[in-house]
# Entry
Amino acid sequence: KAGVTQTPRYLIKTRGQQVTLSCSPISGHRSVSWYQQTPGQGLQFLFEYFSETQRNKGNFPGRFSGRQFSNSRSEMNVSTLELGDSALYLCASSSTSGRTGTGELFFGEGSRLTVL
Amino acid sequence: GIQVEQSPPDLILQEGANSTLRCNFSDSVNNLQWFHQNPWGQLINLFYIPSGTKQNGRLSATTVATERYSLLYISSSQTTDSGVYFCAASAYSGAGSYQLTFGKGTKLSVIP
# Structure
């Protein structure tokens, strides 16, 4: 069974640009969540989607957005990039909806974003 | 929201030694997971353990939900065990949903 696939793996952007990251969950998983990892803040929850609906959102500015498609693939977008957005962005998939707990999460390899 | 604390923050071991990593959480949790982050950044699942004890080779984990802690045991450590170990707990976050909160991790270095 294929794992969680994230693309691109690495990317470099400049301040003010926008970026879109993609995540394909494990086949059959309908929940996708996103996390940001930085040396200073650690791993922080961004948002979670289930069946194309955002179920939960972390404490991030509106520049961070996401969506989920009917095939459960998800994208996250960061607009007007700032230097502080440089981070490893991790996507996770789960077979549960979050209504009764997160279930076991499986993570992709991440997308490493550098903002210059 | 829930607080997740891991200890120790750093740990240096001689190859072959045993170790115990601890994870404390501040509230009732629905789920708990342990991960090992590899050098490329991927979080590798070690245990999904809301309660009880599980073992997988040289690794084992115990969660005592009523006392709000979990322990990860590594026996006969190897250099390949080096890396950062994260504990993550799932708790109700309001609005009918849950989210996973991570601790800051334990950085383990196993030296030959």
